[in-house]
């Protein structure tokens, strides 16, 4: 990196999950097919399965908004059923050993913890999925808190991060993520934002408001 700005030392680092810590497509490709096969079998959505890339492009959104993008014109019953199926099939995939973290994530988190940093997750996903990823990937014990929109019923990630900061009395933290919602969550709470440019799920301009871009998770240690 060139001309990296000097960031204030953080008490804590707050991580998005999908596309930041977890390489989501390693789990989601099979899940995606199963969801739409089941919806058609149950007569809830009869259109062809949308490309999985469209789902991956929606990561970071709330589930309600994801289904509206993937299934325009669908009924509320179809979208609610898709919520249930996604969680069920994701957890089954995790139990079967599917899915992987990005390179070096586990080692870097352990080093950050050893340096005395508090670590948190803030995700727009469902509670059992977000915690399930952390548990099955062997990193759950490294976090001081795992926050999800599914658990706290927050309307935006700005609200979710605000709740996290308040709950833990944090005065300084960095927000680390790969989507515009992560940039908004950081900036909306007065936090520096580290943009994960190694992720491929979003648009190239989504991280334009980040303070620093990293292309390898190990760069966090040099920051």
Automatic annotation (TrEMBL):
<dbReference type="InterPro" id="IPR041492">
    <property type="entry name" value="HAD_2"/>
</dbReference>
<dbReference type="GO" id="GO:0016787">
    <property type="term" value="F:hydrolase activity"/>
</dbReference>
<dbReference type="InterPro" id="IPR050155">
    <property type="entry name" value="HAD-like_hydrolase_sf"/>
</dbReference>
<dbReference type="InterPro" id="IPR036412">
    <property type="entry name" value="HAD-like_sf"/>
</dbReference>
<dbReference type="InterPro" id="IPR023198">
    <property type="entry name" value="PGP-like_dom2"/>
</dbReference>
<keyword id="KW-0378">Hydrolase</keyword>
<dbReference type="Pfam" id="PF13419">
    <property type="entry name" value="HAD_2"/>
</dbReference>
<dbReference type="InterPro" id="IPR023214">
    <property type="entry name" value="HAD_sf"/>
</dbReference>
<protein>
    <submittedName>
        <fullName>HAD family hydrolase</fullName>
        <ecNumber>3.-.-.-</ecNumber>
    </submittedName>
</protein>
